[in-house]
# Entry
Amino acid sequence: MTDYNKQENFFDESVKNKYSSIIKLVKNTALKYDELEDNLLCFTNLVDVLNINENKHSIILKKILNNKKDNKYKFIPSFLRQVLKKEIIFNYKKIKIQTEKNRVDISLEDGFYAMIIENKVCNSPDQKQQLERYIEQFISDGY
# Structure
């Protein structure tokens, strides 16, 4: 189980206020993950078993996200609906999926919208104000 009380002090008040909906989404996603994990008969995380680092994990996820059938992305719309619980309209003809742009593990960009995906594998810790820095960078890039 994840100890969310320890993580509460990680964010200062300005970050909490500015990004409260993102923080709530992350907490709810982690809680749902813990709930699902508790109900599994067997749990093996191949990323941990193979000792895959964040960069390799990002490459795998990028490959999955980039999957197309009949020249249409099949996984991204479903992924966004599952993670965000709402419809996000990307311009799929212009979408770029990149790894390690400005140190962001994965970014999806269409010139108007951008989505940041930060991997945490092998118990890697959060960096101080990591997401805030990434968001500010994308805002300064025009998103």
